[in-house]
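Sample entry (94 residues):
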Amino acid sequence: MLRATVGDIEQWPNVVVHATIDYREEIPLGTREVVVRTRVVEVGRSSVRFAQDVGNGAAEVSAVLVAWDPQTRRSREISADERDALLAGGVVTP
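Predicted structure, serialized as tokens:
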């Protein structure tokens, strides 16, 4: 989803600061394809909260990423353009 909205890790450096996974049911070993639906739940000053549905309800994921400044090694504020792009991203299915 980030590639489709603000760019890959080189264009939009970020770090994962929180992630949870609730497993609901089995995805059998050998499954060749699993659909992951991602949506932006909230965009904060420097963070983005995502929700993901894995395998049509097999797992629910919540993750928080922080925009990162590689030079200062600290979080950075998300710009208005980045915020708009993230919020307009909708649901992306790779």
